[in-house]
């Protein structure tokens, strides 16, 4: 009896906003400075009768981190006191790099990765040739390889600071 | 208007099978690439393409009651596969791989471009997502094809020879399905003929830019049959290898 009262109390206390706040601690295993909120992959959170349903969307179709993040999101929400938590991968919404927050981009640069430019729908391949260097900010750079250490990265070289860098690809 | 199941199912199955098989072929460069970046590029594209196959198999499973994606990928007989011959060939040397990559990926991205307007919404949505990823594959294919075509005497000769052996297989990508009329009428897909013409225009221009010659195709039956389950001798050994672990313990939980 007492136990069920606690559950009811928690239901009233924990709001959708608080769940979203807690998800700021669930990080992308491939880019550990970015949370699932920073990435913009949480499409929706619904609370109904103490059951939580989260809709998330994958970044790249073949992103291997999606299952791990799905599991970690579930564990995080369970740790807030919810028992019935569903995390659904929603294929009907298409992710693109414009969904990343500005804060996410600052974190990426600090982490040493180039950032995808806001493109408003269609990104051009031309701008990839002169990606901004995350180390010195120069655009005097060249693209060495379209494919990097993870699906979402490309490899570049900066002529100004003479360092190579990886960039989160625009998509 | 309700979309008939069979035509769109057939369309997605052949697209998925192409992606699965070329994806596995690409993955054969892992550890063998001529330079590290190319090793990574083909490994990454393999991962993308197998992911695209998975997304298509998932729609087939969830919306058309087909078996689940693992069973579709690893538990079908050769005759049930609908991939075209071009994707089945072993990777050969880097020239062969590059020529195939160029011919196939140009067709693949145009197909997804046409599907952006598909009346079958799950496919139109998926096309939007995959199209953005394929831009990277296409840029990779076209830039290496041009670079090697225009490169040294040796690289030029090898690219021409690789193009001569892959180009005649390419029409097999566009082999008509029994459902062309329905797909066009239902506005699911404008048909293989339209795609083939678009591809030819695009690819012929790029062959010129790479300073290479368009090969002549003498026998129009070469490369045909894959869409109907008739495959080259290369597919079955690949399927055996792909499904080897799966067949050890079919019902195991991963």
Structure, described:
The complex is a heterodimer of chains A (171) and B (254). By secondary structure, chain A is of the alpha/beta class. Chain A folds into 2 domains: 2-89, 2-Layer Sandwich (GMP Synthetase, Chain A, domain 3); 97-168, no CATH class. Chain A is built from 5 helices and 9 strands. Chain A has helices at 2-13, 16-22, 36-39, 66-79, 102-111; strands at 27-28, 31-35, 42-48, 51-56, 84-89, 113-114, 141-145, 153-158, 164-168. The longest helix of chain A is centred in the middle third of the chain and has 14 residues, at 66-79. Chain A starts with a helix and ends with a strand. Chain B has 11 helices and no strands. Helices cover 65% and strands 0% of the residues of chain B. The interface between A and B is medium-sized, with 23 and 27 residues.
What's the topology here?
The complex is a heterodimer of chains A (171) and B (254).
Chain A: H1 2-13, H2 16-22, E1 27-28, E2 31-35, H3 36-39, E3 42-48, E4 51-56, H4 66-79, E5 84-89, H5 102-111, E6 113-114, E7 141-145, E8 153-158, E9 164-168
Parallel strand pairs in A: 4-5, 6-9
Antiparallel strand pairs in A: 1-2, 3-4, 7-8, 8-9
Chain B: H1 5-27, H2 36-64, H3 69-74, H4 85-88, H5 94-115, H6 121-150, H7 153-166, H8 180-185, H9 192-209, H10 235-242, H11 244-248
Helix pairs in contact in B: 1-2, 2-6, 5-6, 5-7, 5-9, 6-7
């Amino acid at each position: 009896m007492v136990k069920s009262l606690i559950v009811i109390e928690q239901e009233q206390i924990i709001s959708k906003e608080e769940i979203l706040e807690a998800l700021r601690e669930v990080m992308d295993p491939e880019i550990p400075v970015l949370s699932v909120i920073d990435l913009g992959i949480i499409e929706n959170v619904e609370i109904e009768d103490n059951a939580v349903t989260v809709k998330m969307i994958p970044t790249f179709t073949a992103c291997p981190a999606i299952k791990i993040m799905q599991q970690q999101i579930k564990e995080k929400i369970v740790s807030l006191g919810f028992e019935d938590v569903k995390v659904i991968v929603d294929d009907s919404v298409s992710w693109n790099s414009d969904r990343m927050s500005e804060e996410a981009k600052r974190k990426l640069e600090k982490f040493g990765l180039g950032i995808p430019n806001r493109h408003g729908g269609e990104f051009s391949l031309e701008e990839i040739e002169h990606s901004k260097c995350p180390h010195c900010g120069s655009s005097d750079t060249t693209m060495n390889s379209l494919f990097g250490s993870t699906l979402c990265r490309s490899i570049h070289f900066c002529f100004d600071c003479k360092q190579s860098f990886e960039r989160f690809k625009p998509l | 208007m309700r979309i008939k199941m069979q035509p769109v199912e057939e369309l997605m199955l052949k697209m998925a099978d192409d992606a699965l098989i070329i994806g596995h072929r690409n993955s054969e460069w892992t550890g063998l690439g001529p330079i590290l970046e190319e090793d990574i590029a083909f490994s990454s594209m393999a991962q993308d393409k197998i992911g695209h196959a998975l997304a298509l198999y998932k729609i087939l499973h969830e919306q058309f009651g087909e078996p689940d994606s693992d069973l579709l990928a690893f538990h079908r007989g050769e005759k049930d596969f609908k991939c075209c011959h071009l994707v089945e060939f072993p990777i050969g040397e880097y020239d062969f791989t590059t020529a195939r990559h160029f011919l196939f990926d140009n067709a693949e991205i145009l197909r997804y471009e046409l599907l952006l307007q598909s009346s079958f919404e799950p496919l139109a949505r998926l096309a939007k997502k995959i199209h953005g990823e394929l831009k990277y594959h296409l840029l990779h294919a076209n830039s290496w094809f041009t670079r090697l075509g225009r490169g040294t005497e040796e690289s030029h000769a090898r690219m021409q020879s690789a193009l001569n052996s892959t180009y005649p297989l390419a029409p097999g990508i566009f082999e008509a399905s029994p459902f062309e009329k329905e797909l066009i009428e239902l506005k699911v897909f404008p048909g293989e003929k339209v795609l083939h013409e678009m591809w030819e225009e695009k690819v012929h221009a790029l062959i010129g830019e790479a300073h290479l010659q368009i090969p002549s195709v003498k026998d129009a039956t070469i490369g045909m049959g894959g869409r109907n389950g008739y495959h080259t001798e290369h597919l079955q050994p690949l399927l055996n290898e792909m499904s080897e672990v799966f067949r050890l313990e079919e019902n195991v939980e991963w």
